[in-house]
Amino acid sequence: MLYHILYPLNAEISFFNIFRYITVRSFFAFALALLFSILLGKKFINFMQKHQFGQIVRDDGPQSHYKKRGTPTLGGILIFSALTFSLVLCGNWQAWPFSASCLIMFCFFVLGITDDLLKLRRKNSDGLSAKTKLFWQFLIAMATMFVLIRVGATDTMLYVPFHKGPLVDLGWPYLLFASIVIVGSSNAVNLTDGLDGLAIGPIISSAASLGIIAYLTGHFELAKYLYIPHFTNVGELVVLAAAVIGAGLGFLWYNSFPAEIFMGDVGSLSLGGFLGLMAVLTKSEILFIMIGGIFVIEALSVIIQVGSYKMRGKRIFKMAPIHHHFELKGWPEPKVIVRFWIISILLAIFAIGTLKIR
Ligand code: 57M
Fold first, then answer.
1. Ligand 1 contacts CB of residue 25 (under 6 A)
2. Would 204 disulfide with which of 16, 79, 222, 248, CB 3.0-4.6 Å?
3. 328 alpha carbon – ligand 1 mean position (Å)
4. What is the pLDDT of residue 290?
5. How far is the CA of 187 from the centre of ligand 1 (A)?
6. Total-model pTM
7. CA-CA distances (angstroms) from residue 156 to 101, 140, 169, 358?
């Protein structure tokens, strides 16, 4: 609204000219999302508690989690509401990267809430089958990428860190590569969301890091100076990243240990999908392995554990994902969480630093 309604009035009221600037709208998006989630968070939690939307905690998990039974979940609804409120006001909906990112988040939101509600109704942790979730995630991701390539919002070039210009034009197979990044990110965030605040911390650091890259990619002179690709409207993703950071901090206010609310698959799948698409649209798919390093480590720990168990009948970790391994080693939950946050912040900072080395 600010961009589409107030900015065009800048001829009459020159003050409205500020809404053309991505930085200004990003600040407003951040502040509005933060205020919305913090001010309405308690009401949302009380509502979820009253209607028994409480987490089903599996009994084969760490003993320390049993006391978490009944913690209100579906916190992703609060996050998404805060995002919707701030982005309707601050977003540029005519920019393909922005609107496509919002659309993919909404589709993964619907998938996640379906999964969560199934778990709540069946009173167990078996929601949608993994196959069903993956089918819909790939369908949504590939459809989104097909449209974005066809409208010229992105291309099929592959860029790698430390290398000037594109490494190779993958052609249409890039569609599958990009979809793997998006779906992989969504599920890796989902796996990471197993301790209080453990997922939202790296989501915030990843959104901040990818937001900086989006600003540089959308800025012709800066992109040229850094030898990174330039796509005009990718800069609008900064507004979305700022809103995610604001809503994420507001959610963390309540999700911090001991959590009063969990985000649910509705939150982890949608935010993970957003980060994946943001990595694709900023041509940072390979760099995203570093930026979202915590998500990669968590997902790899599961793959290694399941693989080892199937092939050798032995576990590598005390329990996967790896955050449970440290819990079972005796690390208090907050220590695991904050140490994972520290690693994700360091990885995000280092990733930005690589932009200068080409
Ligand atoms: C996503 N969900 C949490 C909450 C959150 C293949 C296998 C590795 C799959 C994996 C799995 O089921 N992953 C599902 C992780 C769950 O959190 C809910 O799910 C949402 C995110 N999707 O928003 O609604 C539990 O996590 C805890 N939690 C917190 N604080 C938070 O802020 O404490 C979540 C958010 C919640 C709560 O206890 O109930 C989860 O862990 O399920 N399975 C596992 O991760 C299981 N690992 C496992 O089976 N390892 C095996 C093999 C198969 C790899 C092994 O190591 O041998 C562990 N998770 C659980 N029980 N709950 C261990 C068993």
1. no
2. 248
3. 14
4. 97
5. 12
6. 0.95
7. 18, 18, 6, 21
